[in-house]
Design goal:
By secondary structure, the chain is of the alpha/beta class. It contains 10 helices and 9 strands. The chain folds into 2 domains: about 160 residues, Rossmann fold; about 90 residues, SIR2/SIRT2 'Small Domain' (2-Layer Sandwich).
Length: about 250
């Protein structure tokens, strides 16, 4: 691995526009469970209700059985509660501070990148602590769901509250998608895929586009993923440790 670290650190040192694509494997180093892959909470298993987690956490299930969807929304929030960003998040924020062309595209809804200080941030799936009413303009940030009645009702109109996150089967919000493609149109010098299985096309696409830019691609993940066969460098290890080592060598 030392040789890989040295090679990737060379690219990191030279690059000015860097894209980090991050998934649940990054936050696993903060103690959060992943949903797929090595150690995945629902890897090849069903929920207690005998439905896939993707169905339980879907937009149509929220409408049909809000108590079921909210059960697993609350589970995700409970895992996030009390946890915080780790060294991997911090390294990315430090890289952005020194290289302002650095961007992060994250699928994570835990808000850790923002807490770590990253500002060039595309939270493509939203943040779990941002709640809004499905029927009126009410919205609120709630950091702790432990006192919420599940499923929660809007204090203004009594209708269902939901988190401002993209559930399975729902469209991505327009604003972050536009921001992402504006940056992709400018191209990047180096692309990292960190802790994500890359099952969504918009998460894998920047790795595919990197070939057009002539940009090296790096995957940091303990297991094989949808883009493992595409990247130039595969580092099979945990994200926080590898990112820390890379930045130490590159600096």
């Amino acid at each position: 691995m030392d040789e890989l670290i040295t090679q990737v650190a060379h690219h990191l040192r030279r690059a000015e526009r860097i894209l980090f694509i991050t998934g649940a494997g990054l936050s696993a180093d903060s103690g959060l469970p992943t949903y797929r892959g090595i150690g995945g909470l629902y890897n090849e298993k069903l929920t207690a209700e005998d439905v896939p987690i993707e169905e339980a956490l879907s937009g149509h299930m929220l409408l049909q059985r809000p108590e079921l969807t909210w059960k697993y929304i609350a589970e995700v929030e409970r895992a996030c509660r009390g946890a915080d960003f780790n060294a991997g998040h911090q390294v990315m924020a430090e890289i952005e501070a020194q290289k302002p062309g650095t961007w992060i595209l994250t699928q994570n809804v835990d808000g850790f990148h923002r807490r770590a200080g990253s500002r060039n941030l595309i939270e493509i799936h939203g943040r779990i602590t941002d709640l809004y009413c499905t029927a009126c303009p009410y919205a609120q940030n709630i950091d702790d769901f432990s006192n919420l009645h599940i499923p929660p009702a809007c204090p203004q109109c009594g209708k269902l509250l939901r988190p401002d996150v993209v559930l399975f089967g729902e469209m991505l919000p327009q604003a972050p998608v536009e921001k992402l493609y504006n940056e992709l149109n400018r191209g990047f010098d180096l692309v990292f895929s960190v802790g994500t299985t890359s099952v969504f096309p918009y998460i894998a696409e920047p790795v595919r586009l990197a070939r057009n830019w002539g940009a090296p691609t790096v995957e940091i993940n303990p297991g094989e993923t949808e883009i493992s066969h595409l990247v130039d460098y595969q580092i099979r290890a945990g994200a926080a440790d590898v990112l820390t080592r890379l930045w130490t060598v590159a600096s």
